Structures are given as structure tokens and as C-alpha cells.
């Protein structure tokens, strides 16, 4: 500070203060560059003639600083280096112990926790329990699709408002309130379990056997449980509203408060947490589905029964409570972290250069704070071809991610003859290392190789090409578990069609001793109820349709499907792993390229527009498109009292073929979009004065806020490029 006078060291520690010199010397000095101590204090220097070098703390030292500000270039403006209210706390309550978290790493910790909870809830639990919700509340597939899409609808409605006004507001407060709303959505989503009453299965041990009464009385739809879909849609809508600030304001807040070279690593860590969330959701949700929905009740059903409903609601209660706890510290962070203003002048401008793009309006410090600037902001983004192409490429990748995350467990369940909980757990094991590792490595490579602009897009291009080639693994598939020739149980119903429909409550798959899977004990010719075996499984004896290999008597059948003996399982899993890891490997480089190809003042708004495009063209139609394609491979539909229910048996060869065609189509589109974006990207012709020279490594800048000058009046120049 100016009052600190300790001989020559004081002049060295005050780079903004210089000796009286001609105006031309002040103007030609590079903005943001510290004055050289040797040249400023040398007795022979031209600027030292006015004052004695033996009196470095004399009063005239402070006057030339104001003169230097007055002589600044007209196309530059100044911002304060030390923003007011930079302490971490809640209004007047800001204890000193909390200031240890008032750093980029501290904020990243809580932001990662919020992203982890969001991913676990929306992309993990929802996809895992959606079939259980259908069964429990008598929902059709299109109704569950509406529930899943309510999240993206809410996000699309809120993105423009949140990214435009939140980008110029107090970002941590927007983020904190968003996490609170997201937690409320989780609690609302679990509410039907407590208001719908106990789950009445109405099933006996003999159901599905030939000696049991197979007539099922169809209700007239008077249960009223399907009305709870509105509650689920409301919960998902709140999830979408609350998560909107995370991937727009959260990313830009990190990018604004760290060095440009560190930004990809911070963002990659944030997105890695968002990827690990769904993986944890699949693992925890799959484990919870092994627990009966009415916890503490004894039930004769097994997890393989089509009537089984697991404890789908427990996870939402946990994530709702955790979201409330996470929002509290986020709300306490300041508008800008201490020391963040130094990175304004250190950040390299890699904005895509537009022809005849007048920076007059954008250079105004008040641009973007009113609704009147919204049309111009949108127009500037639409004129940026690199930004548009990156948005379209992101939409193609989002389509694959949304489709695979929703139907990936179902694909594994059909190919490898697994139960729903086993398939969800196995898919989680793939997503944890592939999705999380790919996301983190993407940011690491950008930082390691110091990639800029076109180099980042080329990395995205390479990742897309690799995952495109790995998609050809869907040429192979696991054969269906052997089943007897399609025929109905004894009765006057006539021959079975290829795409047959059976009552849902009559589908009780059993594995015969001959290695074939039968639709029910009656299809296997089992006359009586099952008896428990020493291993805990239910075994049906004297099944007339199951041949006995070692005697003339009848065979037996075990409850559940036969296990798959597919020899191609390891190869399929390895290449699916490759597809996932390279798909996520390009996510952080693509996001970094988006941040670098738009103007600094439009970053939050650009991310909001990009998320709208990604969700509208990818997130919303992706599950619908993949669901329609997979349904084309169905062989056996469940009959819900005369109406077609969900699919019970898929044809594995057709499912793999349809997945191959869909995946290749979207991967080729993404490859083309990245290629054109790389060709059209135009890097800036030249850097601002002296700015580029200080930035390739930026190793001289410390992350410690104490390195900043202490003078409250110290100002730094800021370029609007």
C-alpha cells in the first residue's frame, strides 16, 4: 500500500506506481505488464530525473498514477482488482474459518457435489426405476416417457432466462437456489410412495402353473394410480429448473475465477463428478431394487418375477436431503472469488473472428444487463458458424448419450439374459471408469498439450472418429437364450403368432432342466406349486414339457430365466467401453472450444443457448428415437387387459442391428459437424498488446490471492475482445 515505506523494496512491490515521466511513456507501456524495477529506479533512467532515487517513498510517487490512467487508450476500460464483498459467508455472518474454502478449489468441491447429486438423481435413479414405477402405478410407456422428458422441457424453458440474467448477476446465489429447487423436486418425486398406500400384488404361489386359475379379472382403470404421473412430472420439472444453472453459470463461474490454462482441468473435474453421479445412481438404484418397495413387509415374490417392485423411492429421499445440505455453502460464496480479476487481463482471447463485427455495443460494460440487448446477443451468436456447428455436434452426441443411458441396461439385459438389477449394476460398472475417466482425460489433454481453438476441435474430431469405428462392434450379438417353439399352453386358443401377446400376470419365466427358458411354469407343463431347493431357489417338479435326459420321467424347472452362455460377451463389453470413453472424452474439449469461440461477455448466454439446442435436438428426442428403434426388435408383448403393454422378449440380432444403424448415423453427423467447424474456425489475427506473450504457460501467476496488490485504488485494464 502507499503507506508502506521500507526503502527500495517498497518500489518493487508496487508495480502500478511509476515515477513521473512523459505522457508518451505511460501510453506505450503494455496494459497489465508490471513495470521493471531496474528501469524505474535506475539513477540514469529518464524517468528518474524529476525525483531523487534516494527518496523512493516521497509524495510525488502517487501523482503520476492518476496521470497514467488519464492517458489510457480509448478502447480500454478499467475494472477494480479487489471486488467488494469478496468474503465467504451469509450476509453479515462470515467467520474466518470459512475463508479457507473461499478459493476456486473450495467452490469446485461443492459444485462437484451438486453435479454428482444431479447426475445420480436425473440420469441414474430415474433410468433405473422407471420400469418399477410403470408397474407400480399402472403407467404406459408413453406416460413414463413424458415423465423423463419433463426434465428437458423445464430446462429448455428456463435456460434463456437463467443464462442471460444469471450470467450478469450473482452466480453463486443462482446456483444455490437452483440446488434447493432440485432437492425439492426429489422429495416431490418420492411423494407418491407415501400417499398411494401399500403395494397389493394379489398373487399366490400357484400363479402360472397349469393347475392354477389363469383367469385374471381386469379392472376398469378405477385404481387411480395412473394419476400420480402428474406428481412425477412435477418432480422432474423441478429437477430441470434447479439443474439449469449448474451447467451454464457454474461452468462460467469456474472459468472466470481460474487461469485460462487451468480452466479445462477444473471444468473436467466438474463434469467428471456429473458423470460419476449417474454411475452411482445405477449401482445404488440397482441395489435398492432388490429390496421390496414396502420395506419390512414379507413377500413370496422373487426379484425375477414380473410383479416385483423394488424400493425405488429411497434414493430420492437421500438425494433430496443431500441437495439441501449442499446448497447452503454455495449460497455463501461471493460474486467473484478473491484474486479473480487478475485473470481478466491474463486470459487469451480466442474469439472467432467475424467479418464486419462491430464491437461497439459489446464493449459497453452495461451490455447484456437488460432485455433490450437479448436480440443483439442472439444475433451475434447466430453469426458465429463455429458456435452453431459445435452446438449441432453436441446435439448428436447428446442423442447417443441420452439414448444409451436410458436403454443401455435394457440392451445388456436382453443380450446377456440378466435381471433388471443385474443389468443396471453392470452398466454402472461400465459408466464409472469410461464416462468419468473419459471426461477427466479430455480436460487433461487440453491442458497438457496447451491446445487452442482449432487444436481443441481437432481433438474432438479424433475422439468422434474413434468412437464411430468402435460402434461397428454392434455387428455381432449374443444369441437369444434357447426357447421352445412358440406355442400357447394347452387350450383352445389356437396357434401362436410370431409377435404374440400374453397376459402380464401369466408371464413367470422358468428355466427347464433341458436348458430352455419357458414363458411360465404352465408353458413348461408344471402342474403344482414350486418347492424351495437347498440353494434357496424355487423348483417346479414333474414338468411334462421338459424332457428328462437320464430317465423316462418328467423334468423340472427353476424360477427365473436361464443364464446366457454367450462367448462374445467380453468383446461386446470391451467395445461398448471404448464407445463410452471416447464419447465422453470429447465432451470437455467441445465445451472448452465453445467458451473460446464466443465473446467473453457472452459465455454464460452462449452455454445457455447451446444447452437449449442440445436438449431440443438431442436430449428430448434421443430416448424417444432409441425407444422406438428398440421396440421394433420385440418378439413378445405383455397383454394388459386387451392393451399392448411392455416388451417381454427381444430379438437380440435385430436389436444389435438397429443400435448399429442409429449409432453410426449420429456419429457420422457429429464427425461432419466437427470437421466443418474446424475448417471454418478463424483464430484472432493478433493478440491485445502484450497479452499473448504472457499467456502460453501463465506459470508466473500464483493462485494465492495475497499476491495481488493491496492498494484498493489499484486498477487493471480489461479488453473486450
Structure characterization notes:
- With 721 residues, the protein is an alpha+beta fold.
- 49% of the residues lie in helices and 7% in strands.
- It has 21 helices and ten strands.
- Strands 4-3-7-6-5 form a five-stranded antiparallel β-sheet, with no helix packed on it. A three-stranded mixed β-sheet has the order 2-8-9. Strands 1-10 form a two-stranded antiparallel ribbon.
- The chain is globular and about 90 Å long.
- It starts with 7 loop residues before the first helix and ends with a strand.
- Mean pLDDT is 74; it is low at 1-84, 486-499 and 686-721.
- Belongs to the organo anion transporter (TC 2.A.60) family.
- This is Solute carrier organic anion transporter family member.
- GO terms for molecular function: transmembrane transporter activity.
- Keywords: Cell membrane, Disulfide bond, Ion transport, Membrane, Transmembrane, Transmembrane helix, Transport.
What's the short story on this structure?
The chain has 721 residues and is of the alpha+beta class. The protein contains 21 helices and ten strands.
Describe the structure using short key phrases.
7% strand, three-stranded mixed beta sheet, globular, alpha+beta, disordered C terminus, 21 helices, 721 residues, five-stranded antiparallel beta sheet, disordered N terminus
Q: How widely separated are the two ends?
A: 31 Å
Number of strands: 10
What best-fitting shape do the alpha-carbon axes yield?
A: globular
How many helices?
21
Q: Helix share of residues?
A: 40-55%
- Average per-residue pLDDT, rounded, comes to 74
List the strand order in the largest sheet.
4-3-7-6-5
Portion in beta strands: 5-15%
* Low-confidence segments: 1-84, 486-499, 686-721
Structural class: alpha+beta
Please summarize the sheet with the most strands: 5 strands, antiparallel
Alpha carbon gyration radius: 32 Å
Transmembrane segments: 107-126, 146-167, 174-194, 230-254, 266-292, 312-333, 387-407, 427-447, 459-477, 571-593, 658-681
Pfam families: Kazal_2, OATP
Family: Belongs to the organo anion transporter (TC 2.A.60) family.
Domain Major facilitator superfamily (MFS) profile: 107-680
